[in-house]
Structure formats: structure tokens, C-alpha cells
Amino acid sequence: MAAVAYRPWYSASIKEWLFTTDHKKIALFYGVTTLLFLSIAGLAALGIRLELWEPGMQFMSPETYNYLLTVHGIVALLWWAIGVWSAFANFLIPLMIGARDVAFPRLNALSWWAFFAASVLAILTMLPGNHIKMMWTGYPPYSLNDDAGVTALYVMIVHILGVSSIMGAVNFLVTTLRMRAPGITFSNMNLLLHGIAAANVIQLLGVPSFAGAVTMLFLDKYLGTNFFKPELGGDPLIYQNVFWFYSHPAVYVMVLPAFGVFSEVIATFSRKPIFGQKAMALAIWAIAVVGFMVWAHHMFTSGIPDWMRIVFSYTTVLIGVPTGIKIFNWVATLYKGSIRYTTPMMFTLGGIFMFLIGGLTGIPLALPAFDINVQDSHFVVAHFHYVLGMAVTLAAFSGIYYWFPKLTGKMYNETLGKISFWLIMIGSNLFYFLQFIVGLEGMPRRYADYPPIPEFVQLHHWQTIGAFILAFGILLTFINWIYSAVAGQKAGNNPWGSSSLEWSIPSPPPPHNFDKTPELPPNWTPYQYGHH
């Protein structure tokens, strides 16, 4: 029998790319789209920062400011912080479990095309007359007002994205449950797989709640129902409860896969097995469960009864426990490790640092006595930008750098990677740490203008400078990836010396991944560094 010439997964005709069901090509579709939308979210944020440079309206009307805030929120959360993990899940799940593809390749392709349809609708909101100006939350009664923009478009985008994410979640969970190579069990499989699986369980349970909330919004605005109109017997707080029942667990949809990336990178570059691997897996699932019990901390100032504030204060502080276990175990893995400060490792350590600051500021926000004083101030904005904005972005960038040789067969530029890392860290900390201070000083969030208080003006100047340094660091990262994919040095099959399964095949992988189902030795783990 003649030997078949090796060809990489990306060598295909345009028709094959358009009609593909190959998980690796669909991963690239997701990845490119989410990075494009990260750029859109970033440009909207720079517009917001420029407007806040000085008191008074400088560059735009309050309506345009509201539109930029809405675009930044919806796109950064739903396209980037959640969407980017669909790219990772698509590319890595079959490679990490020894499978040829996902369980339902056609459903996988359909979930991407639904995501693409939602992306087109989101871009249509940029046309004059189509602006959505009610923030990503869509709170009534404002969203029922004509000034809020085209609520129907918002509802349609949420529904299509929801359909896409449910199809993806079913696919990834069935693939992980049913298609693992013999020898890969729940206790020894990659922590990234646990993070993605837990995130997808949250999607299956939570997305219908979000869809229900926006459907009631649509019915109220266009068909005359009275779910949220107080003057007709409705209650806007119903919306907040149903909305946050999904949208707080959605935080963990964004952050649990990030924890998985941190674990993979730390194990590889400290040459040690993950400390307490089973405890780490249990902590991921504990976060997923408790995540559904904290939503009303978003409503501490909404007039809910005191007993409810106390209950949700306890659950919010409780969710810090499994998170603390994870950070302790990462530090214990690093202890006495043979650490290599590669670009992925730098981004991972930076991501843990940013998550730690975000998490520590979340603890006082869990206490009603403190939260009531800083609710809807820039302090809250700084908190979730540390946790979601930066920890998730740094994790995703770390993961892209780490698996870049696997995806492309090329090496990225290490020097450029480290320069971009330091620019991102300096810019983001200058930006968001000062946001804590201006929030404590009393600066409310979502306002397009503020009084000419000297402290406010000075702090906003420095924040805006930080935002542009951060943007430049991200731009350098994009340049690094594009240049390296085209002209980077050829990578070996396993440049990091990892024992995880995806590195056991050529880089880039062939279209079929594995020639035959891998056979794993007894006591196999993806983190067998102590034996080298």
C-alpha cells in the first residue's frame, strides 16, 4: 500500500472551507470572528475613554455614548469572553481525548453559522436608525422606551447566539463524555476539558433563562403584555432576577475555561504535575454549581428584603472558596518547579494576578454594607474588568500563544510576545486600578459627563492613557500572530515537551487528527512531568 503524503488540516479548497464540518476549521472561524469583535469592543471602549477625558460632551452626543457602551458590553461579553472559548473547545477537545472529530460535525457547523448570523445582525446595529442604546443588560423600563433603540434586534441577536451556544454545548459535552480514548477518565483528563465541560453545563441550564427574559421584554414592548410595566401591574425586578439567573453564571462560562488554560500552561512550563489535580477538577465543578446561587448580589440596592441580601451575601463569599483552592494549587505547582518564562507562561501568570485583584475586590462587593455605597460606581466597573476583561483576555491570549505551534506549525516571535505582554499589563493596571479610586471618590458608571472635580479629571486622564497603552499592546499581539503564521520559524511537533495527547501528533495536525485511536499506558495523565 502506498504511503499517503502528510498534509496539514488547513490545506483545502475554498469550497471545502465553506462547507466544512472539520472541527479545526470551525475553530478557526470562531477564533477569527471573536478576535475581530474584540477589536470592535476595544474601539468602542477607546471612544468612551476619549469622551471621559474632560467634563462636558467633547466628541459625541449622549445617545452615541450610550450606543458605544451597549456595543462594548454586548460584544466584549457575548462575542469575545464567551465566544472565544468555542474556538478553543472546537480545536482542542477532539485532540485532547484522541478523537477524529466532535460527536456531531454537522451540528457543529450549524452552530458556527448561527454565530455568524448573529454577528451580521450585530454589525447591522451600526447603521444609523438601528442603534441599540440600552446597555447589554437591556433593563426595563428604559428598554421599553423608544429612546432605547431597536429592542427587537437585541432580542433576535440574543436568541440566535443562544441557539448557537446550546448546539455547541450539546456537541462538546457528548464528545467529552462518549468519545474519549481508552484510558482517559474524568479523574485524569485535562483540566481544560473540565473547565469547558462545566461552562457548557452552565450554558445548557442558563441560556433558556436569558432567552425567556428578553422574550418577555419583546412581548412588553411590541405586543402589549405587562410583565415589567409597574403602571400596569408588572415589575421590572422580575426581569433582573430572570436575566441575572443566567448572566451571573455566564461569568463562569467565561472564566472556567480560562482556569483550564492557566492549569495547562503552568504544568507545562514549571515541568511539574498539577498540585491536587482532582481537587482542581472538583473546584471547577463547585464553582459551576454555586454560580447559580449568587445572582441577586446584582440587586442589593433594588429593594430586595434584608434576609435575601444576607443569603446572597453568604453564597457570594462562599464561591471564593473553590477559587482560592485553585490559586493555592497553582502556586503550589509553581513551587520548586523548573519554571520557563515563555510568552504563554507570562500571560498566564499575569492573568492569575489580574483575577486575584478582581476576586479580592469582589469580596467587599459581596457585603451589602459596602456594596450599597459603591453600587453603580466605577469601582464595580474596575472589579469586573479585572476579572472578566483582563483575566479572561490574558488567558485566551496565553492559550493562543501556547497552542499556536499546534495550530499553525510555526513559532511566534518570543520578543514581540513579551513586549506586548508588558504593555498590556502596564496599560490595564493603570486604567483599571485608577478606576477603583475614582469609583470610591463617587464617579457613577454609565454617565457620559461628570462635574469638573479636579480629582476626577486627573484620574480620567490617566485612565485614558492606560487604555491606549493597553490597546497598543493588543495590536502588537495581533501583528505577532499574523506575521508568525505567515513567516514564523517552523515548530517541532511538541516544542514544549508536553505529555498531553494533542502534542503526540504532528504540528499542524492532519485533517483526520489520529491515524488510529491512541492507546494510553496505565496511570497516564496529561501532566507527567515528574517522570522526565
In short:
The protein has 532 residues and is mainly α. It has helices spanning 14-18, 23-51, 62-81, 83-97, 105-124, 151-178, 191-223, 236-247, 249-270, 277-290, 306-318, 320-334, 343-365, 368-374, 378-408, 414-440, 454-487.
How would you describe this protein?
The protein has 17 helices and no strands. The protein has 532 residues and is mostly helical. α6 runs antiparallel to α7, α7 packs antiparallel against α8 and α9 packs antiparallel against α13. The longest helix is centred in the C-terminal third of the chain and has 34 residues. It is globular and about 65 Å long.
Topology, please?
Elements (H helix, E strand, L loop, with lengths): L13 H5 L4 H29 L10 H20 L1 H15 L7 H20 L26 H28 L12 H33 L12 H12 L1 H22 L6 H14 L15 H13 L1 H15 L8 H23 L2 H7 L3 H31 L5 H27 L13 H34 L45
Protein name: Cytochrome c oxidase subunit 1
Subcellular location: Membrane
InterPro entries: Cyt_c_oxase-like_su1_dom, Cyt_c_oxase-like_su1_sf, Cyt_C_Oxase_1, Cyt_c_Oxase_su1_BS
